[in-house]
Write the structure tokens for this entry.
Amino acid sequence: MGKVLGKKRLYEFLEKVSKGADLIAPVKTDTLRFGIIKDFNDICLEGRPLFPLKKFFSPAKQDLFRLNLGEKDEPFKEEKIMIKPRVIFGGRLCDFNGLLKLDKLFLSEEFQDDYYKEAREKTLLIGINCDPPPSKYCFCESMDLEKYYDLFFHDMGDKYYIESGSAKGQALIMDLEDYDFLMPNIHCEKKLVRKELAQHYEDPAWEQENEKCLSCGKCTSHCTTCLCFDMLDEMQANLKNGKRSKEWDSCQFENFTLVAGGLVFRKERLPRFKHRIYHKLQYFREKFGMDMCTGCGRCIEACPRLIDFTEVINKFK
Amino acid sequence: MLFKSETFKIVKKEKQTEDDCLFRLEPVGKKKIKLSYEPGQFFQVSAPGIGEAPFSVCSYDKEFIEFNIRGLGDVTNHLLKLEPSDKICLRGPYGTSYPMEQLKGNSLVIIGGGTGVAPLRGVLKYLEKHRADYDRVHLFFGFRDPNEILFKKDMEQWNRIFDLNLTVDKAPDSYTGKVGLVTKIVEESGLNNKKKAVMICGPPIMIKFTILTLEKLGFHHDQIFVSFERRMKCGVGMCGHCMISGLYVCKDGPVFRYDKVKGLHE
Amino acid sequence: MKKTKKASKAKKPRVGIQSITGCAGCQLSLYFIEDVLLELFDKIELVAAPMIKGKNEEENYDILFVEGSVSSKEDLENLLKWRKQAKFLIALGACASHGCMQSMKHMMHEEEVEAAVYNKFPSDKRLKPITAVPLHKHVQVDFYIPGCPPDKEEIERVLKWLLQGIKPRVYDKAVCHECSLKENYCLLDQGIECLGPLMNGGCKALCPDYNHPCTGCRGMLDDANLKSGKEILRDKGFDPDLMIKRMTKYNTLQFMEFESKPKEEKK
């Protein structure tokens, strides 16, 4: 059993839960994007931002160290991480599940990414149910998503039905009126037929779809869970001070696997395409027991050629 | 912090070939860090303002680390310009090591090609300290030509305590040593696979043909350890650059037992 | 005091900026690095820059930027001379890197173009034009900073890398990469014939960011999938002739090379 909140009281509720924090929600500018809300009226829950939430947990470009070549003993000074508490409102189940997957990479037992860790700890997740799915490319129903959120809203016309998924969330809706309702599951038109990918590495279906690939990297930049990165040093004009930063990269680019001496291990487009999908659906599963894909369909929607890996896999005999 | 480097001081720099130098580094600062690394592991070495590059350790010691650095890119070319008493920043150790403990009592076959001999030097430095724990140690090292031979000083010592087989791909007529590919001297050795473990490090093509030769001699894939080269950026299994199939070379490797990695898709 | 100043000056790399046929906008981009220009110029000796200097030397360049394409005999003579004088020669801008608009002539007839442009003066041959080509068709080029105009921050970066003594790094990602990071609404989806997926970025997707389709001033990607690119534009119903014109606007020679290449895909 959950709670109920009249739509008229939404802003009041958001104001309360986001006190002292940044409220992040979908905003309609030229495109629909997740942004920091300054005016509640900017919140737009129609459709879903094409760009996922990962930017709030590991920015596209993040400075790691300040560099001072004059200090021979300690040229690197850590860049302070300053993250304000925030509340994300209007994320979808796929968005939040993406974080569960990224946790495996960025919060492993041995190594934790400090920025990511702090961002995760300081973020409250309030989701909204997809009824109907926001895009025709969605196929999350095939991906066994977890009910992962602090709070989860379901639009009931003039009110929201709310369920909590954590103690933190529960505390925020204590005062609201109880309500008896069964949260409907998400139903997607698009399906991914789950198959043992290892046996299909040489299937010709890969090649047909790959011929369309432009290696532009939009599939990875829009992916909920792609966060491969490069590390770069850059000096200021005085050539004494500079910085070391981390910047998103993509396995779809030709030189992603370049090593010293000029050898590139995935030179051809086809192994790059396969690597992306195998990483999502096989390699990650072997390591962590879950897929690295949430079925959000953004990689398909963002692709200039609408390359659809689910169709490749569904075609396998 | 994750990518934080420690400062070391260069205490020795030894020219190996036209393009390679062996650097010995010691930690600086009043509080001396106890060094702990195993043969096969690597460090990310910084050229501040230019970038980082991964290097396998080629020593085994609690007081210092040694790296063989070959000028192949901007980072390495910068590092080669450094001299003793200069500072150098690095982080690590990262990755897997050769399972030295596990292999006790066995004979070892150690095969290296070119700069691939550098990580194996770490193994040999370990063996110098633990010689009695192992049966015979067969070394097969191949270099492009006599000028490319690394660790000439060590070779004399290794020749005494191990079975050293050194070859060069090509050489002037005046050269008195062996000439021919490393696979050839491995094959000629006629070694069998009884109670042995093999360690291979070198260019991909050399690894491939050496394994074919070892198969002919009757070695099984689970007796062979290979070390892979990739351009690690993070070193901690996050950045994705070094992935081969589902394996992160930086975290699951760089040392792999061959039966676990054969036939992987790039 | 004066002596030490001179001694340190002697170590500074000698840098030159020279032009052949072009609009000189590339050179201007360099001077637009206002914030750090003086700091950077302090680390070099600017020995030749005819746009801003009266006295220019023509010898021993450590780094020489050349803008413009080789479009006349005089251009060629100059370029060959400069190449001999320069240790590191950088093609600055679209003309020098890819030939830019003047190289569109490669897909037309010389007389046709001359008639269209000089029809009032059919006998005026003073210009002695040759069909324009980028620098590398005649001399070895050590680095390219493409773009029309080139990105001033990239010029700054390249200069800094060279001063650090390292090889400048090429930007080799598609325009779409930077464009998608800005979360732009894809122009192709809005029915606008953007060439982003085929073209080299590094421009921070400046044009698409302002809803102007990319026309590829930074050249085509080495890795461009031209066949697929054409299919998108065809599927979206764009005029094929217009598309070819767009694609060749800056990169006629590169386009022709791609077209004559045996099928790069597959394998």
Q: What stands out?
A: Residues 2-315 of chain A form one domain.
